């Protein structure tokens, strides 16, 4: 089966549970005092989708969202973005629109957007009605789902929904000067010269 | 996104997000230092930044606006016993000068301003910056043009009638015909998708930046493209410089004799010889002409391979020739790489590495003043733009934040002249419209400097499809316009140049001068002992100066620590906690990676033999062409050496 690498970036205010969602998805683990992503450039997990394997490269903000200083390079080449808010914090839902705007500004055009209302285990102190969030998501043609990283609710589903929305692979370009990553070993194809 | 307070204690505070500062930030954070990294701008990378087209228009506006001196606030209330106060400079506009903008295409086109899309884009996507650019675009362009024109008229009294930067829009309004120029409105509309750098440099494939990116694993945040060809401008024509061995064999420009001479020369200059040493201190040109290479080869070797000038000394010329040759073939058949989305990505990548290891980032935030211990002359704390006192052990700052009186700089200040052009065609059209070209241009007139041109295609994400982004760079003699416009007029079609086919048209262009960062002295500043100055971009093609400086600063801060050791792979990170073993995919991925590692060398061996076969075939071709057997032996031995130089 072909493996397709898909970069996914996470957005949303500090404290809404972005890192917890990644940790739940990748490690199936939840920690109340999750250290702020120290040392993790991105985490990966592979899931089957049709006759492809999707290898998600999940980029966390590395805390750069805290003072609203995310670098544009964070969004480059993302296939999808998950914008997270906290259903118990109205503020975090209101700033959602700013994150959508930021994404439109800096992100790729054809990016798949998902909105995740996290901490839905705390329904009794909910401040954001599900209906309102759902309507907003529909208005921007985004995936919508409520999750709980704590109770492992809908986290897998979130990524499954994203997988389904990823458009099928186009024919690989016949661009002789393709871009590549730098590694110790040069990419084999680059060695073939004129 | 409410205004949260910053923590009040750090190990290292870094001000400015240029390349040097960002590398220092990543290096410190990586080994466990608590880093606070600030920039007064709303964007990353200081003078190394890249902008969307709209962002660039805003930047231009900011440069042209007179910077308002802030009211000087009195922070003496925060000063403790035994402390001195040093104020930092609050504006850095001084590093950019002589900015001029020209637009050679129509402002509008008919499909523009369908109210729906424009409105939606504004509502949905525009940041503050874009909105400013959008709403002010036209006025600003107008005034700029006028200003620029006035200045041009003053500077170049000779050709005032030529200035008609925007040909009347009417002919274009009729219908979208085949060869219709892309309008400014279209550039603005598509502008969010491409990234225009203020600095134009390339990465040597075996240079210190590439080495550092690989060593630290920062490289995985970015992608790169090969510069696909080296060109030169000679006698009014653009020519391709044969670069790799295969290029030389394939070259149609070179005669068989020339090919052999070139091969022999390049092989011989890999090793330092006594013959070469005899030329030390004398011009490389003299050395070259004594090798009896002929004019063609001499031009290629001097300007395109050594990237030298007529008076570059031989030892310098040979050193850069060797560097060029060492860098060939690592990733492609020229020595250079360019980051996709532009050079401005690189500082951001190092900043991300810093953040990943716990560094705290805050743009639009600066330091007003430093609190310095009178006895030790060490900076103990800073006061930030909100008046908060934040303590630190070390303070790293980009030189633009420090008043001139405190700095030791080379006098007179050296500058780099820059031009940024959006054009509608390549200077040397070829089968592929996706070439990345480095063009070396000897002085086109006496008194003018030699110029470096980098032409980028749309797949580098620096310009829209159908256009090219052209960067011109040289050491300043006069203003950027004076230094570079004669060349622009010669190589491109503008309204200033007489009608001529075959030359690409300039749609839009920007000239400015930037202070050359290599002029900053490392020592001897009137500053606290734990404060380190980083210089801005220098005029050289590579990044050695900056990377060396960053490493030096890091070693002063943390003499015992390793500089940018590799960050762990994503697969190796285990969240601690009892049940942190859940991901079944992890095993698969590791296996997958191992497989790849196994495969790679095999593939390369195959490549090698394939290449060798190819090369042998070509050599045989040449042999057939030649009949003298002695010559054959010559080639044989060269071939042997070529393999030895391989790693
Ligand atoms: C105009 C020009 C002429 C040059 N002529 C020579 C020369 O005559 N001799 C020389 O040593 N260097 C020559 N060089 C330098 C040479 O191209 C490279 O610097 C050096 O060989 C390392 O690059 P490379 O082999 O990795 O890349 P490339 O030159 O692009 O070669 C690609 C592949 O070809 C293979 N290869 C390269 N050279 C040989 C060889 N001689 N035999 C079999 N396989 C080979 C290598 O395995 C390499 O992987 C020349 C450079 C220039 C710019
Ligand atoms: N109750 C509950 N708490 C959560 C959930 N997800 C995250 N948290 C907590 O919210 C806090 C912030 O989470 P974190 O992942 O660091 O948020 P980030 O800043 O967006 O990355 C942590 O204390 C988490 O334990 C959830 O689904 N339910
Ligand atoms: Mg987090």
UniProtKB/TrEMBL annotation, chain A:
Claim: Lipoprotein is one of the keywords in the record: yes
Keyword Calcium: no
SUPFAM superfamilies named in the record: P-loop containing nucleoside triphosphate hydrolases (SSF52540)
Gene3D superfamilies, alphabetized: P-loop containing nucleotide triphosphate hydrolases
Chain intervals for the UniProt region annotation (Disordered): 170-194
Record GO terms (molecular function): GTP binding; GTPase activity
Membrane topology: Lipid-anchor
Keyword line: Cytoplasmic vesicle, Endosome, GTP-binding, Lipoprotein, Membrane, Nucleotide-binding, Prenylation
NCBIfam families (alphabetical): small_GTP
Protein name listed in UniProt: RAB31, member RAS oncogene family
Organism, as annotated: Sphaeramia orbicularis
Automatic annotation (TrEMBL), chain B:
Domain RAE1/2: from-to ranges: 416-538
Annotated region described as Disordered, given as residue ranges: 106-180, 561-647
GO molecular-function term, one example from the UniProt record: GTPase activator activity
GO cellular component terms listed in the entry, alphabetical order: cytosol; nucleus; Rab-protein geranylgeranyltransferase complex
Secretion signal span: none
Superkingdom in the source lineage: Eukaryota
UniProt keyword annotations, A-Z: Cytoplasm, GTPase activation
InterPro entries per the UniProt record, alphabetical: FAD/NAD-bd_sf, GDP_dissociation_inhibitor, Rab_escort, RAE1_2_domI_C
Chief location category: cytoplasm
Subcellular location: Cytoplasm, Cytosol
Comp. bias intervals (Acidic residues): 137-162, 586-609, 617-635
Biological processes annotated in GO: intracellular protein transport; small GTPase-mediated signal transduction; vesicle-mediated transport
PANTHER family membership: CHM, RAB ESCORT PROTEIN 1, RAB GDP-DISSOCIATION INHIBITOR
Similarity comment: family membership: Belongs to the Rab GDI family.
Functional summary from the UniProt entry: Substrate-binding subunit (component A) of the Rab geranylgeranyltransferase (GGTase) complex. Binds unprenylated Rab proteins and presents the substrate peptide to the catalytic component B. The component A is thought to be regenerated by transferring its prenylated Rab back to the donor membrane.
Record's protein name: Rab proteins geranylgeranyltransferase component A
């Amino acid at each position: 089966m072909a493996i397709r690498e898909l970069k996914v970036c996470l957005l949303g205010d500090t404290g809404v549970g972005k890192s917890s969602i990644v940790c739940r998805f990748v490690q199936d683990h939840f920690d109340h005092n999750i250290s702020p992503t120290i040392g993790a450039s991105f985490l990966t997990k592979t899931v089957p989708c049709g006759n492809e394997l999707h290898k998600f490269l999940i980029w966390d903000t590395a805390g750069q969202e805290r003072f609203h200083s995310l670098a544009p390079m964070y969004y480059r080449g993302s296939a999808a973005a998950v914008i997270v808010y906290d259903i118990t914090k109205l503020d975090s839902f209101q700033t959602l629109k700013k994150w959508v705007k930021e994404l439109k500004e800096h992100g790729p055009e054809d990016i798949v957007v998902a909105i995740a209302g996290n901490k839905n285990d705390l329904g009794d102190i909910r401040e954001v009605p599900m209906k309102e969030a759902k309507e907003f998501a529909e208005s921007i043609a985004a995936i919508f789902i409520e999750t709980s990283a704590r109770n492992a609710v809908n986290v897998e589903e979130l990524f499954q929904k994203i997988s389904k929305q990823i458009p099928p692979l186009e024919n690989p370009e016949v661009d002789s000067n393709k871009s590549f990553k730098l590694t110790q070993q040069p990419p084999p194809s680059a060695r073939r010269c004129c | 996104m409410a205004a949260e307070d910053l923590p009040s204690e750090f190990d290292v505070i870094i001000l400015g997000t240029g390349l040097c500062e960002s590398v220092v930030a990543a290096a410190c954070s990586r080994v466990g230092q608590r880093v606070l990294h600030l920039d007064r701008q709303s964007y990353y990378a200081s003078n190394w930044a890249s902008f969307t087209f709209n962002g660039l228009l805003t930047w231009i506006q900011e440069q042209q606006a007179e910077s308002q001196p802030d009211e000087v606030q009195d922070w003496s209330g925060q000063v403790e016993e035994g402390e001195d106060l040093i104020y930092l400079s609050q504006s850095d506009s001084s590093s950019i000068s002589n900015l001029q903008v020209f637009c050679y295409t129509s402002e509008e086109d008919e499909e523009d301003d369908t109210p729906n899309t424009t409105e939606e884009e504004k509502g949905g996507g525009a940041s503050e910056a874009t909105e400013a650019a959008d709403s002010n675009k036209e006025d600003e362009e107008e005034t700029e043009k006028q200003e620029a024109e006035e200045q041009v008229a003053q500077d170049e009294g000779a050709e005032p009638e030529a200035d008609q930067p925007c040909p009347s829009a009417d002919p274009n309004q009729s219908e979208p015909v085949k060869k219709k120029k892309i309008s400014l409105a279209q550039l603005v509309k598509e502008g969010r998708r491409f990234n225009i750098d203020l600095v134009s440099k390339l990465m040597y494939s075996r240079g210190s930046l590439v080495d550092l990116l690989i060593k630290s694993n920062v490289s995985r945040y970015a992608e790169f493209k090969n510069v696909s060809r080296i060109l030169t401008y000679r006698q009014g024509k653009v020519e391709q410089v044969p670069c790799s061995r295969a290029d030389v064999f394939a070259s149609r420009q070179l005669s068989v004799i020339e090919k052999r001479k070139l091969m022999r020369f390049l092989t011989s200059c890999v090793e330092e010889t006594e013959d070469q040493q005899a030329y030390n201190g004398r011009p490389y040109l003299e050395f070259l002409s004594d090798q009896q290479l002929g004019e063609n080869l001499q031009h290629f070797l001097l300007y395109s391979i050594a990237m030298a000038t007529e008076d570059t000394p031989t030892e310098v010329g040979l050193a850069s020739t060797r560097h060029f040759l060492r860098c060939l073939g690592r990733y492609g058949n020229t020595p250079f790489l360019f980051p996709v989305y532009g050079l401005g990505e690189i500082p951001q990548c190092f900043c991300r590495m810093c953040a990943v290891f716990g560094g705290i980032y805050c743009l639009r935030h600066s330091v007003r003043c430093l609190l310095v211990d009178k006895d030790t002359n060490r900076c103990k704390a800073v006061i930030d733009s909100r008046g908060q006192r934040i303590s630190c052990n070390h303070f790293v700052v980009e030189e633009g934040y420090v008043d001139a009186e405190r700095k030791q700089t080379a006098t007179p200040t050296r500058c780099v002249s820059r031009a940024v052009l959006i054009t509608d065609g390549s200077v040397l059209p070829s089968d592929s419209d996706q070439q990345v070209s480095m063009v070396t241009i000897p002085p086109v007139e006496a008194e003018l400097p030699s110029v470096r041109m980098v032409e980028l295609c749309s797949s580098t994400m620096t310009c829209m499809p159908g256009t090219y982004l052209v960067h011109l760079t040289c050491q300043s003699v006069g203003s950027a316009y004076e230094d570079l416009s004669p060349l622009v007029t010669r190589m491109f079609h503008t309204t200033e140049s007489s009608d001529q086919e075959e030359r690409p048209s300039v749609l839009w262009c920007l000239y400015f001068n930037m202070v050359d960062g290599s002029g900053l002295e490392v020592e001897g500043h009137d500053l606290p002992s734990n404060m380190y100055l980083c210089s801005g971009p220098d005029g050289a093609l590579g990044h050695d100066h900056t990377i060396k400086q960053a490493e030096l600063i890091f070693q002063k801060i943390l003499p015992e620590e390793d500089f940018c050791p590799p960050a762990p792979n994503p697969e190796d990170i285990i969240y601690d906690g009892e049940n942190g073993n859940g991901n079944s995919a992890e095993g698969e991925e590791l296996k997958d990676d191992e497989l790849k590692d196994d495969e790679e060398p095999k593939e390369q061996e195959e490549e090698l033999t394939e290449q060798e076969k190819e090369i042998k075939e070509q050599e045989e071709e040449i042999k057939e062409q030649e009949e003298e057997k002695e010559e054959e032996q010559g080639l044989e031995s060269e071939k042997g050496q070529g393999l030895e130089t391989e790693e």
